[in-house]
Here is the input.
Amino acid sequence: MTEPRPAALPRLAALPKLLIIEDDPGLQAQLKWAFEDFEVFIAGDRASALTLLRAEEPAVVTLDLGLPPDPDGVDEGFAVLDAIMTLKPDTKVIVASGHGARESALRAVAQGAYDFYPKPVDIDALGLIVRRALHLHRIEAENRALAARAPADNRVLGGMITAAPEMVKVARTIERVANTSVSVMLLGASGTGKELLARGLHEASPRARGAFVAINCAAIPENLLESELFGHEKGAFTGAVKTTEGKIEQADGGTLFLDEVGDIPLQLQVKLLRFLQERTIERIGGRRAIAVDTRIVCATHQNLEAMIADGRFREDLWYRLAEIVIRIPGLAERPGDATLLAKAFLGRFAAQMNPAVKGFTADALAAIDRWTWPGNVRELENRVKRAVIMADDRLVAAADLDLPGSAAEAEDNLLNLKAAREAADRKAIRHALARSEGNISNTARLLGISRPTLYDLLKQYDLHG
Here is the structure.
């Protein structure tokens, strides 16, 4: 008679993996015993260490710098550290050595080690360092998982990346007006992404199959702007060797984006107004009215209302162009977006120009979050591009970004503990609200607090869920 098979044991959660690289058998055994709550792997030289690293992918590694064939030096240990940082840069490496402790510590941290501990090893103290490293590794792994979903979670209106409620609101407004035929005026500082939003409006509209034509009115000399917009007939002026369609005509059935519309001269404003009223144009040198079905989207960083008061912009044209006015917040008004965009830019530029670059150091991310970005997204893009090109290491440091200010200044700004906590609370809540699209239950879950606590914080900080 066949004996019944024993019931399957309940599956236990996998233990975290720890790789101990140490050539002393006695210390190997001592460390293995000390870390019973880890799945411990032991290596006594470079080859076996890297084999285990590839096969097991441990979260944390303790590394003795004195390894064969150089047990009395540190060169072999640093070679192993370099190899680990190249193969698995997310691994938390804790370096231990009795050889020139201070110099070795500085060099190890500079080469990517998480922490350093001098010999003789205090097992209890080392245990605290290892567990702290494991905690950080888990947090970073969760952040990477969230970042991997960022393109889906944080892209709005055809590709704009944002987690800020202010920008999500702008995108939702544009999506609502996209299906109408109204003219839209985008107001915002230079570099805030006005053309990207205009293109998103076009792609979300029934005109998406038509052309999206963009023209920067400030970049074209006044004497050429009329021809660019309205086109010209052959022989209309010296150099007009053939009949040419203007931008308005090229956008027939689609959308025309007039960037920096405040730079259109008054005389040309009259002709543009006539087109908006009659929906027909005449090319320069032409005598025939041409019907054109083009939607106009405009943008400017100028104060058009002040220009109207000064007589530099026609009020009747303003009302035709600004049936819907949408104000775009600057990057400094969009908490979290600078970091989000910086990571996206780094990924793109590193792939194109410097594949060795894999991310930002903690001080670089702090500098990005701290800077006010007067040049908005364009400034951020340019600084990240330059930093990727100039970076010597696999991580872009704060110095590579060449941002004014110092870490000391940042610390001074955060010496008020109450203010620092409030700033951190506000930022975390706004990030969670953005990620949850305003859903209070999901926001509370992301923050790890109860709904009543979240409501209290929203009221305390005058935030809106």
